[in-house]
Every structure is written in C-alpha cells, then in structure tokens.
User: Which sequence fits this backbone?
C-alpha cells in the first residue's frame, strides 16, 4: 500500500543532469570554433571511459545498471574532465582521468550522492600531478599557432602521438594564458606587456576567453532555470573579482585585472558547472556563500602564488572537504523557533 | 486591508478543484446500514451508552466522552442498534475498532434538540454543550472543539481557516459558497465564547466564489470580521502557516496557537457549532467531496457512518479505479476497503487509478540538491533528516528537529530522486517514540533495581550498626558489672533495674554472637586460631619468596601462582 503524498511532479535527476549537459553546449561549440574539433574526440574518449567504468563499478557493487547509467551523471563527469585537459592530449589521458574519477572518486565512496569530492576535479588533479608534461600541451587558437592540424591529423596524433612529418608539437601548442602570465611575470615582464603577446585577446586568452563566455552563457541558463543555486557562482566570481581587483589596483604591473581572472582557465566552468555540483557543495544558502567565497579565495591564491597554473580544481577539492563543517555551522532557523533555540 | 505575510517554501500542485464544484452539495440518501466508530476524535474513545437492540433517535447520544480530551458520538438517524463490536475503519493499518451498527428505520426522526441562546451562555456552559454535541475540528485533526475554548491564556485573535489548500478537496469551498451565513453565525458564537475582538477569515484566492459569499454574509451580519484572500500555496491551510500569513506571528515550535493569543477553527467546524447551538443538532453529518476517477465528482452532505462505497457509487467510479484515498493526495491515507464508514474527519474521498496517480519510479540516491529544503514550509533540511533516518541515526534526526515536520509531503513532491521522504520521517518518528517508551521502561526497571540494591546495602549497614551498638552496650555493661562488684551499690531501688538491664544485655550479647558467627567476618579481629595460623603460614611463604627473588636479583613482583592462597 502506498502512502502520501500520492502525487509528485519532480524534475528527475536525469533531467537535471541533461539540462546541465545542454548548458555546456555553447561553450563546447565555441571551443570547436576556436580550437578545432579535437575537443570532441577528447570528450568522446572521456565519456566512453566514464560510462564503461560506471558500468563496471555498478556490476562489481551489484547495483542495477540501467537507472544509474541513464542518469547522465557519469556522462557529465566525462565531459567536465575532457574540458579541463588539453584537447590534443594522448588518448589515454582522458581515459585514465575519467576512469579514476568514476572508480575511485565516485564509486569507492559509495556512488552517486555519496562522494565527498567532485569526481571530475579529482580526475583532473590525478592527471596534473601524474602527467604534468602531457597536461601542458594546449592547442593554440586557430590563427595563432604556426601550423594547424586537420581532424585526421589530430586523431592520428591523439592515438599514436605521431605528428605529420616536419611538424613540431611546440608549433601547434602553447601553455595556457594563465600559465604564460605566471611564467612571464617571473621573467620580469609586466602584465600589460604580457597581454600584448599574440595569444591574448580582449579580456584573457584569445579563443579561450570566448569559450569561457560560452560557459558563462550556459551557466546563466542554469541559473534562470533554477537548476543551480545562485549563491555559489555569485560568491565565487564575486570573491575572485574583488580580490584580483584590489591587487590589480594596488599593483597593476604584477597583478592581472579581474576580468582576466574571470575569463581565464576554469573560472567560468568552475563557477557554473563544478562548484555547483549539489553532491559536493553545501546544502544551506549561507553555507553556499561561504563555500563560494572560500573557493574564490583559494583560486586566486593558487593562481597568484601557487605552483599550478590554475587553482579552480584544488580550490574545489579543498572546499569540498569543508562541506560537512559548513553545513553543520549554517543550519537555518526553522519555523517557530528562534535562532538561539537551535542546538 | 491588512498586510499579509509569507512563509518559507510551499508548492503549487495542480488543484483539481473545479471538477467537484460544478454542482451544488447533494444530500446523500439514507444508507441501508450505518457503522459508527466510537473513536472519531483526538483523545479517548467514547464509551457506548446504548444496548444492542435498542431503538435510537436521530442525534441521540450513543457514546459518551471519557476523560478530558474526548467527545460524544450520536446516532446519525433513527433506527435500531444491531451490533456493538469491532469493525474495520478508515485507518491505513486496517485494524478494527469499536463501532455501533445502526439499521435506520427510514423515519429520520430527531430526538430532543436543545437550542441555546449563546449570548446568555458562559464559555463554560458553551464548552459543555459542544462536548455533548460531539463537535470536533472538521479540518482533519478532529480535536474536540470544547478543549480549544478551555485555555487559560487570553486569545485576542480568532482565525477561521477556509484555506482548503490540498488539491481535489472542495467541501469547505462548497460549504462557504452555499452556507456562508450559517458559518458566520457559528464564528460569532466562537468569538463570543473566546471573548476576542479580531476575527480573520482566511480563504485561498483560488476560491473567489467562496470569498465573495463569505464577504456578503459578513457584511449582512454587520460583524466586524475580515474576510481575507490568502495566496494559494500548499500547505497554506496548515493552521500555524495560515496564522503566520494572516498575523505575521509564528506559533513557537511545540506550542499551541493560544500561546501567542490566537485560536483557529475550520469553517466547517464553525458551521457545526452554529447547528449545535442554534438548532440543537448534534454532529451527525458532514460535507464530503467525492472526486478523482469518477464520472460525477461532487460534494455530498452525508451521515456519519455512511459506507464510502455508497457515496462512491453515487458518483460512479470509472472502470480502472483500483483504490480509494481518504483526504487529499498530499496527506491522505489509502482506505483499507471502500466499505469502511465516513467519519467526522473525512473531508474527501478520491477514487484513484494508476493513470491518475502513477506509482513513483524507483528511488534513486539523494543528490543533496535541496529542492526539498527549498519547499519545506518548516524550513527543515529534509535531505539531512532523510540521511539520518535511513542510517538509523535517530538522535541526530531529533536534533535536526524531525518532530517539527508536519508531514505535508512537499519535499517528496519535488524530490528528483523520487525518495518517499515522508515515509522515512514517519518511520523515524515512530522508532524514536518506541525507543523513548522502551527507555522509560528500562529507566524504571533500572531505578527499581538500584533502589533494591540500595535497600539491601542499607539493611546490611543498619544490621552492622545494631551489632556494633550491642557490642558497645555489652562492653559497657561488663564494665558496669565489674564496677558494681567492686563497689557495692548504694542505690537499692536501681538494683532490680540493673539486673533486668544486665539480663537484657546478656541476651543481646548471645544473639549478637550467634549472628556474628553466621555473618561475614568484617575485620581480622574475629578470626579463628586456625585462620590466624594460616595467615602466618602465608606471610612466611611470602617472605621466603621475596628473599628468593631478592637473591636472584629480580626486583619484580613474585610470580602470580605463589600469591593469594
């Protein structure tokens, strides 16, 4: 016998995940536009590996395959990993990243809903620590690099690591705009000199700034559709803006301006697609603000003073750790109880 | 116009109210047989006061209240009581309860109807009358209405609940449309009894006809009542939430509305109060919505005890109907059988089919999306409560205010993982209650045990004290006797007393010795020579072992087996 309520009208988990995937489309489209179709190969590899690992783990854990494979969560994890690694990476890079994310960061913690850390970011962290060299070969935007690969050549390189005769990898790839900024600042250049380099566009890296804008657009859709809470992206981007703004005002020759931070690296995809993972972020409104501020602060610190080019992944993982504490601290007042009545 | 307030959360499910409001309230025909449960209200069940075979008149008392929180049960029509026994009732447990079976004689003949002039009545007299008339809250909680007048704290606002927030239910809506004047008269009686000034009648704004009917009735009555359209949001008809919306006051957790000077009655209860006071009619019928998967959704005025199957048959259920729900789709209960009787709490019966209410898909894991927290009208964290309930962490669930949950079902309505959240909360609540009960029993048992231990110990001590006292007395007596032997006593009159004293002491001494022999030796003074010899032997052995150990250069303790024999 069923019990009340007898009616439900939920937006189911799979439809939520699907909308998040839709929201990635503008960013991915712009990625292809500026950097060529290699990213699609990368996504396909990561997604395949993610789904295969998901199926394997479900089988090992004796869980039903169909409902969990069709909830699109593994698909989303695969996409996010592919989007955070260089598109021209050898085929095993997205595969290892996805497999680790799904097997270890997700299923060993209990599967969907039980993982304390964002699986995609764990996958990324494992790759950047284990394979730092392969993780630096970012494609130059079209028109910036000295040579361009066709799709066939890209595929060939991804699977065999062999370039067409006479081509050098360095001529095709570059380090990320954030990485370049850090390296050149170390070499004594000023921010404005660095930003005159050909890889930079109006706000940040040429091409990549537009991809970031695409993710921001998708993120705004998620906000409007109420798929993600507004507190997380607002607190994160606000903190990043405020901190970089203050430093930039004090010393514009050594600190990049706020919009540069916003449209570089994983700031936008992080703000709207990674920090907002409900499983690994706080459940209370105030908690989300604290979480976003913390992630913004850590991202800025890692970018400015840390050893890694971008800080979003590590900031996310570090803040993921604080979620239980934040949730406990920020329990809201309930109906008919004063604040001081609480625990 | 008064300023309305808001409460957190809430949902907007499709209301499905139009279907059952197209036709006026219909009087249901007299059924062939009525089954009247003696427990139709919160509190103690009523006690039967009629015999099997007795003829009763309509409105006649057949069950009288027992204890403070209880109410009266009446014969809904004239006829013969054919049985008083356990029958299946409208409870999901399907457990039977004590019911009277009444076969109507078709005359529908009223017994004595005692009308009252409420203006001359004290609140006390009115309370007695409502209790005699079996008036209980008809919004669903069926709390005895007289108890709600019996509160020591001054009530300054009377809130009348016409919100009817649950989907499908329209009995209050139709009652307000058709019998607004009678409702207003009932409200005035309650207002008079409570001695309040402000009366706020809250009706959700999806019932414009009810609002205008009530407004007209209030205008005609020239009472200064305010009819207020409140926003349609589920669960806006929860008394505490309606009070918040109308007055801005939050009834504190675990308290009653009267603690903040507000009392709340449902419109149907106000109507019943009017009938009871000004027409002398005890509560023997109510308006009930029959809707859902039926050809003719409608409201019926039906006698208490009418089988639901009779009412449903009047509305003609569609072929694929496979179950019936009493109450609304959000908080109602599935009927164990459709022939169970209508009770005072029955505001609606919904014919359900799998097409109308599809069974939910299999539950997925919680993804902490907090859509439940966003709609919770109590601002709980349902995702945390679920986590604690499913991991049997009941203490934590209680700490996170599980018992403030009103089980409105808004969380389950929006859950993307289709988790039956309310079931988890009900389960956790019942487990906690059961454990509290067990704990109380265990505490009691432990207290008893501890007291027993304490008593045994105390008795031992007392015995020892008595013994010591006797020994002291014996020693003193001995000394006195020796002294008396040494110096012949000059006090002749005391000699007798001395003698008897001495005899008593001797007797006590003998008893004490006897007891001491059976009791445990408490110190080394009362040892037998054999025991002393044994102890000496042990000491010698111990000294020997110590010397051996010292010779061997070992400074540790002697081996275990050489000790303690």
Assistant:
């Amino acid at each position: 016998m069923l019990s009340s309520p007898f009616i439900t009208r939920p937006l189911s988990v799979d439809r939520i995940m699907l909308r998040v995937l839709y929201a990635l489309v503008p960013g991915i489209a712009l990625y292809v536009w500026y950097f060529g179709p290699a990213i699609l190969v990368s996504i396909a590899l990561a997604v395949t590996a993610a789904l295969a690992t998901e199926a394997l783990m479900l089988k090992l854990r004796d869980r039903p395959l169909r409902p969990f494979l069709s909830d699109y969560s593994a698909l989303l994890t695969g996409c996010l990993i592919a989007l955070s690694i260089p598109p021209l990476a050898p085929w095993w890079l997205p595969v290892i990243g996805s497999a680790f994310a799904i097997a270890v960061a997700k299923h060993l913690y209990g599967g969907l809903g039980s993982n304390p850390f964002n699986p995609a970011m764990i996958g990324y962290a494992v790759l950047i620590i284990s394979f730092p060299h392969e993780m630096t070969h970012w494609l130059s935007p079209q028109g910036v690099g000295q040579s361009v690969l066709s799709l066939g050549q890209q595929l060939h390189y991804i699977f065999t690591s062999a370039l067409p005769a006479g081509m050098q990898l360095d001529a095709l790839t570059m380090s990320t705009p954030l990485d370049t900024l850090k390296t050149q600042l170390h070499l004594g250049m000023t921010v404005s000199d660095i930003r005159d380099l050909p890889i930079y566009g109006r706000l940040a890296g040429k091409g990549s700034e537009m991809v970031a804008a695409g993710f921001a657009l998708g993120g705004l859709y998620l906000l409007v559709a109420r798929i993600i809470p507004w507190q997380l992206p607002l607190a994160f981007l606000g903190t990043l803006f405020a901190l970089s703004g203050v430093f930039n005002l004090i010393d514009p020759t050594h600190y990049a301006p706020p919009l540069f931070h916003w449209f570089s690296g994983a700031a936008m995809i992080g703000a709207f697609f990674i920090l907002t993972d409900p499983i690994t972020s706080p459940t209370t409104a105030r908690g989300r603000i604290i979480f976003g501020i913390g992630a913004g602060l850590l991202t800025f610190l890692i970018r400015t003073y840390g050893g890694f080019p971008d800080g979003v992944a590590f900031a996310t993982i570090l803040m993921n750790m604080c979620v239980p504490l934040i949730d406990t601290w920020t329990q809201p007042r309930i109906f008919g109880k004063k604040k001081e009545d609480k625990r | 116009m008064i300023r309305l307030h808001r409460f957190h959360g809430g949902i907007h499910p499709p209301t499905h109210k139009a279907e059952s409001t197209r036709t006026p309230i219909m009087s249901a025909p007299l059924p062939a047989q009525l089954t009247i449960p003696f427990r139709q209200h919160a509190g103690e069940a009523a006690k039967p006061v009629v015999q099997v075979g007795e003829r009763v008149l309509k409105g006649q008392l057949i069950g009288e209240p027992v204890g403070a929180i209880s109410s009266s049960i009446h014969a809904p029509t004239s006829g013969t009581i054919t049985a008083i026994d356990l029958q299946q009732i409208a409870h999901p447990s399907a457990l039977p309860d004590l019911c009277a079976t009444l076969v109507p004689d078709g005359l529908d003949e009223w017994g004595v109807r005692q009308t009252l002039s409420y203006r001359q009545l004290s609140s006390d007299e009115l309370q007695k009358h409502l209790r005699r008339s079996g008036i209980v809250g008809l919004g669903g909680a069926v709390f005895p209405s007289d108890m709600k007048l019996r509160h020591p704290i001054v009530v300054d606002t009377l809130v009348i609940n016409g919100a009817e927030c649950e989907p499908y239910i329209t009995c209050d809506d139709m009652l307000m449309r058709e019998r607004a004047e009678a409702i207003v008269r009932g409200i005035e009686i309650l207002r008079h009894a409570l001695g309040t000034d402000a009366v706020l009648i809250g009706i959700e704004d999806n019932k414009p006809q009810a609002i205008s009917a009530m407004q007209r009735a209030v205008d005609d009555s020239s009472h200064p009542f305010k009819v207020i359209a409140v926003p349609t949001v589920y669960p806006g008809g929860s008394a505490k939430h309606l009070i918040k919306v109308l007055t801005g006051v939050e009834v504190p957790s675990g308290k009653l509305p009267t603690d903040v000077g507000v009392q709340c009655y449902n419109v149907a209860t106000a109507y019943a109060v009017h009938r009871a006071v000004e027409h002398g009619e005890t509560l023997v019928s109510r308006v009930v919505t029959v809707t859902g998967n039926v050809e003719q959704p409608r409201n019926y005025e039906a006698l208490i005890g009418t089988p639901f199957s009779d009412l449903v048959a009047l509305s003609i259920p569609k072929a694929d109907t496979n179950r019936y729900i009493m109450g609304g789709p959000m908080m109602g209960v599935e009927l164990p059988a459709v022939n169970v009787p209508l009770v005072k709490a029955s505001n609606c019966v919904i014919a359900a089919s799998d097409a109308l209410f599809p069974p939910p898909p299999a539950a997925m894991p919680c993804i902490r999306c907090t859509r439940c927290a966003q709609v919770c009208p109590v601002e709980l964290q349902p995702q945390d409560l679920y986590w604690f309930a499913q991991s049997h962490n009941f203490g934590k669930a209680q700490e996170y205010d599980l018992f403030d949950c009103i089980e409105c079902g808004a969380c389950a309505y929006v859950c993307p993982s289709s988790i039956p959240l309310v079931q988890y909360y009900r389960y956790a609540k019942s487990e906690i209650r059961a454990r509290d009960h067990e704990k109380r029993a265990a505490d009691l048992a432990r207290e008893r045990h501890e007291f027993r231990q304490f008593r045994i110990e105390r008795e031992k001590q007392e015995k020892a004290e008595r013994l010591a006292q006797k020994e002291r007395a014996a020693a003193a007596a001995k000394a006195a006797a020796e002294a008396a032997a040494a110096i012949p006593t000059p006090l002749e009159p005391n000699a007798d007393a001395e003698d008897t004293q001495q005899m008593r002491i001797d007797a006590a001494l003998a008893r004490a010795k006897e007891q001491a022999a059976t009791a445990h030796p408490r110190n080394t003074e009362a040892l037998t020579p054999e025991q002393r010899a044994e102890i000496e032997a042990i000491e010698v052995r111990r000294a020997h072992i110590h010397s051996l150990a010292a010779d061997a250069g070992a400074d540790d303790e002697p081996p275990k087996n050489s000790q303690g024999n």
Summary: The two ends of chain A are 37 Å apart (CA to CA). Chain A has a mean pLDDT of 90.
